[in-house]
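Subject — a protein and its fold
Encoding — discrete vocabulary of local shapes:
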Amino acid sequence: MYQQNNLKNGILGAVIGSIPGILLWILLGYIGFTASIVGLVIAFGILFGYRLLCGDLDKTGMIICVIVLLAAIYIGEHMTWSVVIYKSLKEYSEEITLGDCIKNLGSILKLTEMKGDFVISLVKGYIFGLLGASGAVKKLF
């Protein structure tokens, strides 16, 4: 089913494995809840996907999984903020789309002077995510 040590497959598996956790991150973030359990879910998905499509997890695989984890947390946080801002702006303008908010989040945050809040939220997300991920790694090894 998989080719041993095929990094392209491992990367693909890690990325696909991160998707359920990213969706959970967005959902919980939207309702205002952040927890390391989501980091655990993302990490398990990434590790499962990597191992499923690549096989054994070596040092290179761990580095790949950490990079995917960091990217997944950023994507989850970016999407959460985009959805929240979209919902707020939609009340004032029906022309705004979610795509506009996703694409222009940096500009919106700068205009609303919320960039610092986003950075703080992202750092907290990384802390929670890495705490959850460490739990996943401990359980696997």
The longest helix spans residues 59-90.
